[in-house]
Amino acid sequence: MKEKKQGGAGTMKTLGRLLKYLFRYYKGSMIAVLVCIAVTAAAGISSSVFLEILVDEVIVPGIADGYSAVAQTLTTVILSMAAIYVVGLVCSFLYTRLMAIVTSAFLKRVRTDMFNKMQSLPLRYFDTNTHGDIMSCYTNDTDALRQLVAQSIPNIFYSLVAIVYLLVVMFNSSIWLSLVVFVGVAAMVLCTKSIGGRSAKYFVLQQKTTGETEGFVEEMMTGQKVIKVFCHEKESKSDFDEINYRLFKDCETANKYGNILMPAINNIGHVAYVLVAIVGGLFVLWGVPNLSFSGLESAGVGMGAIVAFLNMSRQFTLNISQVSQQVNSVVMGIAGAKRIFELLDQQPETDDGYVTLVNAEIDENGNITESEKRTGKWAWRHPHKADGTVTYTELKGDIRMFNVDFGYVPEKTVLHDVSIYAKPGQKIAFVGATGAGKTTITNLINRFYDIADGKIRYDGININKIKKGDLRRSLGMVLQDTNLFTGTVMDNIRYGKLDATDEECIAAAKLANAHDFITRLPEGYNTMLTGDGSNLSQGQKQLLSIARAALANAPVMILDEATSSIDTRTEALVQAGMDKLMEGRTVFVIAHRLSTIRNSNAIMVLDHGRIIERGDHEQLLAQKGTYYQLYTGAFELE
Amino acid sequence: MVKKLAKSIRQYKKQTVLAPVFVTLEVAMECILPLYMVYMLEKIQADNSIGNILTYGGILLALSFLALLFGVLSGKFAATASAGFARNLRQDLYYAVQDFSFANIDKFSTSGLVTRMTTDVSNVQMAFMMLVRVAFRSPVMLIFSLVMAFALNATLAWVFLALVPVLGGILVFVVFKVNPIFDKVFKKYDAMNESVQENIKGIRVVKSYVREEYEKKKFERTAEDVRRDFTRAEKIVALNTPAMQLCMWFAILMICFLGSLVSVQSGGELISSATLSSLIVYAAQILSSLMMFSMVLVMITIGRTSAERIVEVLDEKSSLTSPENAVTEVKDGGIVFENVSFKYSETAEKFALKNIDLVIRPGETVGILGSTGSSKTTLGNLIPRLYDVSEGSVKVGGRDVREYDLESLRNAVSVVLQKNVLFSGTIKKNLRWGDADATDEEIVRACKLAQADEFIQGFPDKYDTYIEQGGTNVSGGQKQRLCIARALLKKPKILILDDSTSAVDTKTDALIRKAFREEIPDTTKIIIAQRVSSVQDADKIILMENGEIGAMGTHEELMKSSPVYREIYESQNKRGGEEE
C-alpha cells in the first residue's frame, strides 16, 4: 500500500535499478536469455500461422485437387514447423538453464552484498532497526526477489513478446476480429484491477493480523510456564480464540478475492473466444469485407482465417492472463528489492584513522621497533603525512576522556561532561543504576559510537586518528549479553584468536574457570553449540565469553557485567584468574556486585550520565555519599 | 499424519467437499467448450444462418458463463475451507500447548512453537488449498480433455494418450530427482539465515573482535554452498519447461500432419480445420494439467515437512494429568520429600536430584542456597508437581502430590518462577492472574506485602498502568515485586520464591521478608536465592550441592559446620554487599 502512495515512479525506479543490478553482472547471460525467450515465444506462436497456411494451402486445395497436388507443400510446411520447433526447443532449454544459473548466482551476490554491507555498518543501524526487520531482508525479501527474477521477469517477457507477435499476426489477419478480442482484454484488465486491488488490500490486512497473532502467540509461549503455574489455561485459550477468529476472517476474505481472480480472467478469455466465433460466423454470413493491414479486402473473411484467429485469440488471452498472474509477485518482489536497496544504501561506518597497532620490540633504551611476531608488546605506528616519517608510541593503556558529552540521538544527551583518567595498569570501575551511562562510556572508548563533544585520548593519541579495527583489537571486551556462534565450544573460544592452538584455547578456558564444565559436556570441547548456546546456562555462557576474551589477550580490557550470572563462589575464582592475566594492564569494569570492584584503583559512581563521585573504595566510604549507602545497604540487615 | 491433520477440518467439511465439486464442474464446462466450438463451426460451414450462429453461440456463451460461475464458487469455497482448516489447526496446536506439562514445554523452544503456529500452518494451508483446487483440477482436466479429444477424433487422440506417459514420466523424474536436493538445500538455507541472525545479534562481539572480514569469508562460503546446491536443483527443474514444450509441439506437429493427411485423403469429410484447432486446445489443456500436477507435488512436499512439525506437537502427550477421584483440598502447607530422586528425561544419565529427604512444617521459612546447576530450582518445581519425581515421593499437606487435582494443588502452592514474565495489559489485569475476583483492596494489600505499592503509586496511572509485552517498561526489580504480588493474591498455603528478589535491592528484599513473617505467618515460605542475606534469617537453610543436600541448618549452625556455606558467606560479605 505504501508503495502506491509514493506513486508508480518509485516502483519503476526500483525495478530499473534492479534490472541494472542484474544486467551489470550477468549482461551476456541476460541478453542471451532475452534473445532465447523471444525465439521460443515466436516458435510457440508459429502454430497459429502454420495452421492457417495448412488450411488455406494444403487442406482446402487438397480436398479439391487430391493429395498428390499438395503432398509437396504438406511436407515443406510440416518440416519447416518442425525446424522452427527444434530451434525453439534449443532456445527454451538454453534460457531456462541459464536463468537457473543466473538466478542462483544473482541471489548469492545480493546476499553477500547485503552481508558485506551489514558488516561495515555502524552500531547505530542495529539500534534503530529491529533484528527481525534486518533478517527479513535475507528471508522474505530475498525470497520475493527470487520469485521476481526467476519466474516473473522471464514469464512476463515471454508473454509480452508473444502478445506483440500475436498483435501483428492478428491485425494482419483481421482488424474487426482483433477488436472483439480487445473487448475481452479490456474486461480482463478491469477485472484484474478491481479484484486484484481488493485482494491486495485484504492480503495486507491479513499480513497485519498475522503479525498480531504472532505477537500474541509469542508472548503466550514465552509465558507458558507462568500460565501453567497460575492454571490460566482456560483464559489463555479464549483470548486466543478471539484473535484466531479475526485472522481466519481476514485470511478467508483475502483468499476469496485471490482465488476468484484466476477463474474470472480465464473464463473471460473463454467468453472472448466464443464472441470471436460468433462475430466471425456473422461476418462470413454477411460477407463483411475483411479489414487488415493489407487494406480492405473485398473477399470477406474466410473460414480458415476464423479458425486460425480463434486459435490466436485464445493464445492472446492466455498470455494476458499469464501476465496478470504475475502481478502479485512483481509487486512483492519490487517491495522486497526496495528494502534490500535500502540496506545496501546505508552509510558504512566511517574510518579515517591511520594510526595502526603493531607488535613491537622495545630495547633497554626504550627504542621501539616493529616486529612480525607476537612479542607481547604493542606499539602505535603513527605515520606523519607532512614529512613521510613514522613514529612509534608504546601501547601503555593510558586512556583519558576530557569533558565528553554524548547522546545516542541528538535530542537526548545521556553523558554530560564526563572526564576519566585511566593510567596504565589501573582498574577503573563504573557503578550506577541501569541507564546511568556505564555501558555508554565503554562504547565510546572503542568507538562503537562517536562522541559529540570533548576528547578521548589513548596513549596521548586522539582515538579518532586510530584505525577502528586496530583500536578495537587493543581492547578486549566481555559483554553482559554473551553472544556465542554456532560451532563447537573450541571454535567459540578460538574466536578470540583465530590461529590459536587447541592447547592455548584450553589454557584460556582454564583461566576463565570454564574448563571444568566444558569437560562435563557430552563431547567436551567438541560439543556443538546451537542457537546462541541455548544448551548452556547463562553463567556457563559468560565463562565461555571470558575464555574467548582471555585468549584474545588484549592489552586493555573492558568487562561489562561480565560475571553477572555466575554464582559468587565461582566468580571469586574467575576473578583471581582474570586479575593474574590483567596484571599491569588497564581494565574497565562495570559490575552489579560491589564485591567485584572493591579492589579497583578508582570507582566512578554515575547518575543520569554524570559522574557524581570518584575515588577508591576507602575514599568513597569515607565520603559517606551514594557509594557508601549502596555498599552498606547489605549491612543494615545485621 | 494425513488422518491426524484431517481432523482439523471439522465445521468446514461442506466447503472442503464443495470446492473440488465446483472445480470439477468448471473443468467440465471448459472441456466441453472446444468440442462445442467445433460443432458450431462445422454447422456454420454447412449451413450458415443467423439461427445457427445465435443458437450455438448462445449455448457456448452460456457454457462459458457457467464456467465462470463455477470457477468463482470453487474459489470461494476453497478460500473458506483452507482458511478454516488453518484456523482449526492453529487452535488445536494452541490448545495442545496449553495442556502441556513443564516437561513437554522444555522439549520445544518458544520460537519453534511460534513458527509452528504461523509459518508451518500457512504452508500446510497452502498445500491444502492446492489439494482441494489444483490437485482435483489437473486429473479431472486431463481425463475430460482426453475423453473430448477421443470424441472429436479417435485416431488423432491416440497421439495424446501416447504423450501423457512421456511428459508424466519426465515430470515425475524431475520431482523425485529434485526433492531430495531441495530438502538438503532448504536445510542449508535455514542454517545460512540462522548464521545471519547470529551475526546480527552478536554484532558487538564481531566488531569488538574486529572479525568483520572473517565473518564475510564465512558467509561467502555458506552462500556459495547454497548457490551451488540451488543451481543444481534449479537446473533440473529448468528441464520442465522445454520438456513440456517438446511434448506440446510434438503433439501440434502430429495433429497438423496427420490431420491434414487424413483430411485431404478422405476428401474433407473426416477432420475439419476446426477440429484441428480444438484438438490443439485439448493438447494444451492435457499437458498443462500435467504440469500443474507436478507443481502440486512440489507444494505438497514443502507442506509435508511443516505438517510433520505440526503433528509432532499434536502427538505430544501431556506427561502430567490429574488422577481420577482427585483430592481437591490441600490441608496445610507441610511438605515432605521422601527419598526423592529426579531426572529430566528417562534417558538422561545424570540425576538432577538424588535421594532427597526433607521435612518442612507448615508456616516454616526455608532458604535454599547453592551454586548454579545445583538443582535448587528443580527441588522447588517438584512441590507444585510441575514435574513428576523419578523415584520416591513428594507430599504436600500429608498427601502425595500425585493424588491431588492439579489445579487445586497449584492454587495452594504458589511459585514465583525464576524466569518470570508479565503479560501485556494493565498492572491490575496482571495481578488478577492470581485471583480473578480479587477486590482492589486485596490487590493493594498484596502489593504492599511485596513492597510494590509504593512504586505503583508513583506511576501516573497507578494500578491501571499498562505493562508492555515482556514487561519492558518496568525495571527488573519492579517486575520481580509485581510477580511476587501476583503469587500472593492466590493466598497460597505454600509460597516458593525462586531467585525472585535478585534484582531487588537488599533493603527492600529484607522488607519483603519482614512483611511475610508478620503478615502471612501460616504460609510455608521457600526462598531459593543466591544471596546469603536473603535466607540468613530462615528457620532452616538447605545448601544444595550437585543435586544433593550438602548441608542443612540455621545460619549459625551452618557457619560453624559447613565450610562451603562459610565460603559463600564470606565471598559476599567480607568484600562487600550487592547493589540493585
Please report the number of helical segments of chain A.
19
Helix content of chain B: 55-70%
| Chain-averaged pLDDT of chain B | 84
Classify the secondary structure makeup of chain B into a structural class. Answer: alpha/beta
The number of E-state strands of chain B comes to: 12
Number of domains of chain B: 2
Given helix and strand content, the structural type of chain A is: alpha+beta
Approximate strand percentage of chain B: 5-15%
Write the topology of this structure:
The complex is a heterodimer of chains A (638) and B (580).
Chain A: H1 2-5, H2 7-65, H3 67-120, H4 123-128, H5 131-173, H6 175-222, H7 224-229, H8 233-286, E1 290-292, E2 295-297, H9 303-344, E3 356-362, E4 368-371, E5 378-383, E6 390-394, E7 399-406, E8 415-422, E9 427-432, H10 438-445, E10 453-458, E11 461-462, H11 468-473, E12 475-478, E13 487-488, H12 489-494, H13 502-511, H14 515-520, E14 528-529, H15 538-552, E15 556-560, H16 568-581, E16 586-590, H17 594-597, E17 602-607, E18 610-615, H18 617-623, H19 626-632
Parallel strand pairs in A: 9-16, 9-17, 12-15, 15-16
Antiparallel strand pairs in A: 1-2, 3-4, 3-5, 5-6, 7-8, 7-10, 10-11, 13-14, 17-18
Chain B: H1 2-6, H2 13-46, H3 50-98, H4 102-107, H5 110-132, H6 134-152, H7 154-201, H8 203-208, H9 212-237, H10 240-265, H11 273-315, E1 335-342, E2 353-360, E3 365-370, H12 376-382, E4 391-396, E5 399-400, H13 406-412, E6 413-416, E7 425-426, H14 427-431, H15 440-449, H16 453-458, E8 466-467, H17 476-488, E9 494-498, H18 506-519, E10 524-528, H19 532-535, E11 540-545, E12 548-553, H20 555-561, H21 563-573
Parallel strand pairs in B: 3-10, 3-11, 6-9, 9-10
Antiparallel strand pairs in B: 1-2, 1-4, 4-5, 7-8, 11-12
Helix pairs in contact in B: 2-3, 2-6, 2-11, 3-5, 5-6, 5-11, 6-7, 6-11, 7-9, 7-10, 7-11, 10-11, 15-17, 20-21
